[in-house]
Amino acid sequence: MAKSVQMARFIKYQLPACLWAILIFALSSIPRPLPPPMGVKVADKLYHFIEFFIFGLLLARAFLSIASQGKEHKAVLVAAALGIFWGAVDEIHQAFVPGRDASFLDALADGVGVLFISAIMLWMVGRRRVI
Asked: Structure pTM?
């Protein structure tokens, strides 16, 4: 495969996941963030869920783009494991940011977001409807 084609595939599939991971880390580095209110008591957990739902989708796309035929399920599972791992690393990182703390419930919301989109992606792979 020509290098320009490889670069185009990287930009289309892997780069968005890498940039989202960097964005997560950057946002976690902000002391005492004030997200917009959603009018829900558990809004913080909803933010985590949405943030990692999107990250899980981007990771699944990235891994599916390089998966061999018949290995799509494994690609989604590896992407899910990486997303959950990044959520845990993000929470540990926050323990060292002034005004932030590491929260098991936040990590749980991150993981649930990743697992939710991963379940959808596994269903789509089974039906051969992958984005």
From this structure: 0.88
